[in-house]
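Colleagues,

For the teaching module next term, I've prepared a clean inverse folding example: a structure given as tokens, and then the sequence designed for it. I'd like students to try predicting residues themselves before seeing the answer, so please don't circulate the second half yet.
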């Protein structure tokens, strides 16, 4: 009988813990009614609690003291890569899920650490218009990370090029994975023929292998305001990313903003762990990540969304 009571109390404790973690932020669900994680959604104020492993890794390689917007996107890409079975993070080590070397395209990757991280296990192609950046670097590595970051130089390929010009030269079914950390939104503008939205996505679809994944973590327009040429509503961005034939992974939830936004000032979640003085001081919560509810331009408010597609 005592053992039975013990199990009941443990079960109740787990339920209570789950409730305490997520109460007050129910409008943006992590799991659907079938228990499947909703990867494709807008950012939650407590996402760093969910991505504790990825945040620890970014801290350990020295990129954690950049602005929180960038840190969130790095962590979210790694989180999605791990959740879809591409890699595993074990403390400071990146472990591949394949015995074969795969090819990965980093779209507009610039000086992001993502291409360095992936180079530990696979061949990475980073295409961008330039590799100068907004933070100080040495050999393309953030200066605060030069003694911490592990990477395989032989697996890194830099391509200074317009994206469309580069991908048109790539053979069919060439890449296993594609990642985008907020670059494509400046290239694909639905309804703007000059920017070749559908052509770019058709080409990206063509060079992605069947079963390959496309990941984008990028800025989106918050429905409390307007959209603009490079910050659009998430459901419109889903259509843009899918215009070349890629299929979004379900379930999705880009809706239910109203209650979430009305309550956001009262639902800030502090991260339960401390990652040193800089993180504790400068990154107490995800609220400071956003340009919204502050207006960024002409009635446009910005949040962040995750988009995971498959061919």
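(Answer key — instructors only)
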């Amino acid at each position: 009988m005592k053992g039975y009571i013990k199990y009941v109390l443990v079960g109740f404790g787990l339920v209570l813990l789950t409730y305490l973690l997520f109460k007050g932020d129910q409008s943006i669900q992590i799991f659907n009614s079938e228990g499947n994680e909703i990867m494709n959604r807008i950012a939650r104020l407590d996402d760093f609690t969910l991505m504790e492993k990825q945040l620890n890794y970014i801290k350990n390689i020295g990129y954690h003291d950049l602005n929180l917007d960038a840190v969130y996107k790095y962590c979210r890409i790694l989180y999605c890569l791990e959740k879809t079975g591409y890699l595993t993070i074990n403390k400071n080590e990146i472990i591949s899920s394949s015995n074969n070397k795969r090819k990965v395209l980093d779209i507009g990757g610039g000086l992001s650490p993502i291409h360095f991280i992936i180079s530990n296990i696979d061949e990475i192609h980073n295409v961008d218009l330039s590799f100068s950046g907004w933070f100080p670097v040495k050999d393309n590595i953030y200066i605060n990370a030069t003694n911490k970051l592990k990477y395989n130089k032989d697996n890194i390929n830099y391509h200074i090029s317009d994206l469309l010009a580069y991908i048109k030269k790539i053979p069919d079914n060439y890449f296993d994975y594609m990642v985008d950390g907020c670059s494509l939104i400046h290239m694909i503008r639905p309804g703007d023929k000059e920017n070749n939205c559908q052509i770019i996505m058709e080409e990206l679809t063509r060079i992605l292998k069947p079963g390959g994944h496309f990941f984008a973590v990028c800025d989106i327009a918050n429905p409390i305001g307007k959209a603009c040429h490079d910050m659009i509503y998430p459901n419109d961005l889903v259509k843009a990313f899918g215009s070349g034939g890629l299929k979004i992974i379900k379930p999705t939830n880009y809706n239910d903003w109203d209650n979430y936004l009305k309550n956001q000032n009262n639902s800030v979640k502090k991260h339960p762990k401390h990652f040193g003085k800089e993180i504790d001081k400068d990154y107490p919560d995800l609220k400071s990540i956003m340009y919204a509810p502050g207006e960024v331009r002409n009635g446009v408010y910005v949040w962040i969304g995750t988009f995971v597609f498959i061919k």
